[in-house]
Specification:
The complex is a heterodimer. Helix content of chain A is 38%, strand content 17%. Chain A is globular, with a radius of gyration of 24 Å. In chain B, the strands form two sheets. In chain B, strands 5, 6, 7, 8 and 9 form a five-stranded antiparallel beta sheet that branches. A four-stranded antiparallel beta sheet of chain B has the order 2-3-1-4, with helices on one face. In chain B, strand 2 and strand 3 form a beta hairpin. Chain B is elongated and about 55 Å long. In chain B, 24% of the residues are buried. Classes of the chains: A alpha/beta, B alpha+beta. Chains A and B meet through loops of A and helix 1 and helix 2 of B.
Chain lengths: 563, 156
């Protein structure tokens, strides 16, 4: 079949069963948009800023497990997309981003809206392509989807010069491909798996350290089964919230800088750590020399470079987590007696009782933790929860009762403010039957607030709950703790009228100061079926606790802050 | 941790931008490149890079894994045993006294590659360490210019 480059893009997306593309047109990608106009395989959603197109595709990918797709034009269109790509790369999110480029004949001439796009995206993506000939385009698009979604997932960027989008060539799109130089390892080494299970059987104080890999590999059920069979207590990273389900008695909670006491103590006192697809982020480990220093470590990861990057691993297993855990389960049934760890579990449960996650509620001012718990009580598993970045993000991770994987959508690695609203739009497109909530802050929400227009235009009813403390709260908290309360550039008391702001776009808004008002506003926001702001005035000086100060040790947490 | 010198032979798809992926990886993650040579592997669509690097054991392990992780990387050969050679060209003015030069060239597998009106150019091929020594020794002939090529290596 002979097609031009633009038709090839549309056909390839159709073959990949892409149902929605987020994007923004421009000169260099106009040919592609002309074909988008003529087709009805997928819906195109015109965002208001390219960064949001990438975050929306990201939210779509995170909540559905499918590859998110976005289009941007050359030059500024592409540079705007970079933060989105870097966000997805840090969290291993499958995505294909197609950018226009100036015609091949003009590349290198500093042409209008020309930028070395693949040069810029290289450290922010799993792989990228500059298409020099239309005959390569079908193969490149096939490889892009394959690379994005296989192995350790990640964003792939395809830069297509304008003349290539007009050239005609043969379109052949294979169902499957193999690449000589790229062959991810899915099956774990059987001997290593055996050794790992033996190590577990010999351990006295084992702990499951579950990371984002458990979500990417869709391993939640297997991980839950493994935990249940063995009776081994589990901790989750920020990226793994929802894997175990918060009502699971074996789950201690999130670990790390703002993790709960029992989770961090479990890591500190364990004699064996079973790492299910985490990456030993510095926000998790604290001071490395003191991190889990009594523990031997089993690390299962599909990315060999993740293993041994931060800490020495005693039992490395390269492979797909689901595959490996399923291999471990029959051996574990044979060899591991779950009653053996009872006293260890009892000890950790006592830690949970002594120092649970807590906050002091108030009659005079709303506490952010109460708001999150309340939403959890009301919406529970009916909602998918996105966040921006800051205090509200940590409170959400701590206090929302996550019950299934892909319920929590948050920018973990890069920590991108402005992620929440567009990501929550992507979530709603992927999961129309769920309520899409975005917990955000008064700082973060203004970083992509223009997307309210997109949400109104395309009927994407995201409920944004702004936990408003009139501060860039997380930085303010550090200034309180570590900078003698010199609040440099964090007091943002000068604010828009959030209700008028959202109304001006065609959404609905509510100012909330009391519990009653909040309940009413949440119901009204959901019932309105349009994009909503619930602007919640919270205690200005509430801190995220407990906390392991940067470079501190997990077993030495700041449990409360005293003036 | 002590820095260890390591020679890596990397076979990659011979395609646009592959060198920038590799040099970018080293720059972005703060790894060292002591020398780097690259040329196509005859009769294939691959190129071979020879990278001389140094770092702690963990860093070297990461370098190998990160190189593997690049999509166009076919193979990373990190054998401890390589035949490793480097080349240098040195330009010496004809008016210099060449006393003893012949013996020095013999000692370092050197030849006279070119002889012009004002200069001779000598060429040596030898182990990297010995090239260091040669370039020190040759200074007594007041070379006008010199260039060294970076290591090429084959595992044995």
């Amino acid at each position: 079949m002979e097609l031009n480059g633009s038709q090839m893009v549309v056909e390839a997306l159709a073959k990949e069963n892409v149902s929605v593309v987020f994007g923004y047109p421009g000169g260099a990608i106009m040919n592609v948009y002309d074909e988008v106009y003529k087709q009805n395989h997928f819906k195109h959603i015109l965002v208001k800023h390219e960064q949001a197109a990438i975050h929306a595709a990201d939210g779509y990918a995170r909540s559905s497990g499918k590859v998110g797709v976005a289009f941007v034009t050359s030059g500024p269109g592409f540079t705007n997309a970079i933060t989105g790509l870097a966000t997805a790369y840090m969290d291993s999110i499958p995505m294909v981003v197609i950018s226009g480029q100036v015609p091949i004949t003009m590349i290198g001439t500093d042409a209008f809206q020309e930028i070395d796009a693949v040069g810029i995206s290289r450290p922010c993506v799993k792989h990228n392509y500059l298409v020099k000939d239309v005959k390569d385009l079908p193969r490149i698009l096939k490889e892009a989807f394959y690379i994005a979604s296989s192995g350790r997932p990640g964003p792939v960027h395809v830069d297509i010069p304008k003349d290539v989008t007009a050239q005609v060539g043969e379109f052949f799109y294979p169902d499957t491909i193999t690449m000589k130089t790229y062959k991810p390892t899915y099956k774990g080494n059987v001997r290593q798996i055996k050794k790992a299970v033996e190590a577990i059987a010999n351990a006295k104080r084992p702990v499951l350290y579950i990371g984002g890999g458990a979500i990417n590999s869709n391993a939640s059920e297997s991980v839950r089964e493994f935990a249940e069979i063995t009776g081994i207590p589990a901790v989750e990273t920020l990226m793994a919230r929802g894997v175990m389900g918060d009502d699971n008695p074996l789950l201690l909670g999130m670990l790390g800088m703002h993790g709960c006491y029992s989770a961090n103590m479990a890591m500190s006192e364990a004699d064996l750590m079973i790492a299910f697809g985490p990456r030993f982020d510095d926000r998790v480990t604290g001071k490395l020399s003191e991190f889990a220093k009594h523990a031997k470590i089993i690390h299962i990861d599909i990315d060999p470079s993740s293993i041994g990057k931060i800490v020495e691993i005693d039992y490395p297993i390269v492979g797909d987590l689901k595959n490996v855990v399923e291999g471990m389960i029959p051996l574990a049934k044979e060899k591991i007696d779950s009653t053996k760890y009872k006293s260890w579990r009892d000890l950790l449960n006592r830690y949970s009782e002594i120092h649970p996650l807590k906050y002091e509620d108030s009659d005079t001012i709303l506490k952010p933790q109460w708001v999150i718990e309340r939403v959890g009580e009301i919406l529970d598993d009916k909602a998918i929860i996105s966040t921006d970045v800051g205090q509200h993000q940590m409170w959400t991770a701590q206090f929302y009762p996550f019950s299934f994987p892909r319920q929590f959508i948050t920018s973990g690695g890069l920590g991108t403010m402005g992620f929440g609203l567009p990501a929550a739009m992507g979530v709603k497109k992927a999961c129309p039957d769920k309520i899409s909530i975005n917990f955000t802050g008064d700082g973060s929400i203004l970083m992509n607030v223009q997307e309210l227009m997109t949400a109104v235009e395309y009927d994407i009813p995201v409920v944004n709950i702004i936990l408003n403390n009139k501060y860039l709260g997380m930085v303010r908290q550090w200034q309180t703790f570590f900078y003698d309360k010199r609040y440099a550039s964090t007091d943002i008391e000068v604010q828009p009228d959030f209700v008028k702001l959202v109304e001006s776009f065609g959404g609905v808004g509510f100012n909330v100061k009391t519990k009653d008002e909040f309940d009413k506003a949440l119901k009204a926001a959901i019932d309105s079926n349009v994009v909503a702001f619930i602007n919640v005035e919270i205690d200005r000086l509430e801190n995220v606790l407990p906390m392991v100060p940067s470079g501190g040790t997990l077993y030495n947490m700041m449990l409360e802050y005293k003036e | 941790m002590d820095n260890i010198r390591r020679v890596l032979s990397v076979i990659v798809t011979n395609e646009d931008g592959v060198l920038s992926r590799i040099s970018g990886l080293f720059a972005g993650r703060g790894y060292n490149i002591d020398s780097l040579t690259v040329a196509p592997v005859p009769n294939t669509d691959f190129s071979r890079l020879t990278i001389v690097t140094n770092g702690s054991k963990r860093v070297l392990e990461q370098i190998v894994k990160q190189l593997h992780k690049l999509i166009p990387t076919y193979k990373v050969i990190e054998s401890e045993e390589f035949v490793e050679k480097e080349m240098a060209l040195v330009k010496i003015p004809l008016h210099e006294n060449f006393n003893g030069l012949d013996a020095m060239l013999k000692a370092y597998n050197g030849t006279i590659a070119s002889s012009g009106e004002n200069f001779i150019v000598i060429m040596v091929v030898d182990d990297a360490k010995r090239i260091d020594n040669f370039l020190k020794a040759i200074k007594k002939y007041n070379p006008a210019d010199m260039v060294r090529g970076g290591s090429v290596a084959l595992d044995v």
